[in-house]
Structures are given as structure tokens and as C-alpha cells.
Amino acid sequence: MASIIKANELQDFGGNSILTSDGSGTVTVNAAAMKNTPAFEAFLSANQSIADNATDKVLCNTEVFDTDNAYDNSTNYRFQPQVAGKYFVYGRTTLDDGAGAMRQAICYIYKNGSKLLTAKLNFDRSTTSEGEGGTPVCNGIIDMNGSSDYIELFAELDSNDGGTANVQGNSTERQSNFGAFKLIGV
Questions:
Q1: Residues 21 and 41 in one domain
Q2: pTM value?
Q3: Looking at the structure, do residues 116 and 164 belong to the same domain, yes or no?
Q4: Given 109, 146, 167, 175, which is the most exposed site by the fewest CB atoms within 10 A?
Q5: Do 89 and 136 sit in the same domain of this protein?
Q6: Residue 46 near residue 169 (C-beta atoms within 8 A)
Q7: pLDDT tens string for the chain (186 positions)?
Q8: Looking at residue 118, which CATH number applies to its domain?
Q9: Which neighbouring-strand residues pair with 21?
């Protein structure tokens, strides 16, 4: 035999609301420890020029969401959550040298100004037709202290032609993006 408990609010012993329901099936989690926030995702809205064989910050300037206003999309282009915990962090950089001479495409996630996560695409250097573009994807779990820690997205492209390359951006497609969310239960 099954039992049914009907309630529009679940509270802890201190009278704090943990869950609420609007009576039509929509449940709201009120306890911060049960939420995957702070969280954000942002993307690059137009191509960004970068120098060949140099590491450049990717200026993801268009927010998809930012639950706690912890991502700066106009000045430092960094995520600085004020809640301590472990965060799943991801970044994708679509790189293009425009000349078909790319040897390597790299995506980095920095923590507090230092490289922490790296993803590389290497192209065949033994042929005359190396790559023109590539999209390395970088992700991992990062501990954040909730006060001063921050993360940033960087890219690097190594090309035989030595000219200027681009991190690809688009106002409607998320070709290069950056995001993170707090993990619960860890």
C-alpha cells in the first residue's frame, strides 16, 4: 500500500523552507546547499583577433545566464563565485587562421591567473595542407574558495603563416563559449 503526503512547503527543524510547491507541480528548491548555483554561461558574439603563437584571453561578452551575477562579461571576462565549493567548468574555443596553415589549437582555463586545464588539437606538420580551423574543448572540476578565486578562458593558435588568427564568435551561434556551475553532493 502506498502513502501520499500533501504539502506546499517542506521545512527543516529550524522552520527554514527547504522546498515549496505552487500546487500545480512546480517545485522550488529553497536550500542553497541543494542548488547547482552559482552558475553561468557566456559566449563570444563576434570574431576576436588573436596573435599567432600567443596566449590570449577569450572575451565571452554575451551571457546566456548568470544566476548570481558572478561573471563579468564586460571588463575582466572572469567568473568569481562568492560561494565556496567544487565547480564543473567548461570552455570551447573555435580557432581559425584563415590560411590553412594551423599546426595547433589550444584552449586553456586559468584559475587565479595561472593555467589549470588544457585541451590541444595538433595538426599534421608533415604535410603541406595543415588545418585551417579547430575547436578544442576544455573542462574539469575546480575547487573555488568563495571569496577570491576566479577562472578565465584563454586560447592559443600556432600557425605556419605567422599572421593574425581569430577566435570565432557569432551573435546567434555559440561557437566559442565558457561556463561553470557549482556541484552538489561533493
A1: no
A2: 0.86
A3: yes
A4: 146
A5: yes
A6: yes
A7: 788 887 888 888 888 888 888 888 888 787 777 788 999 999 999 999 998 889 999 999 999 999 999 999 999 999 999 999 999 999 999 999 877 778 889 999 999 999 999 999 988 655 555 567 889 999 999 999 999 999 999 999 988 777 678 999 999 999 999 999 999 988
A8: 2.60.120.40
A9: 27
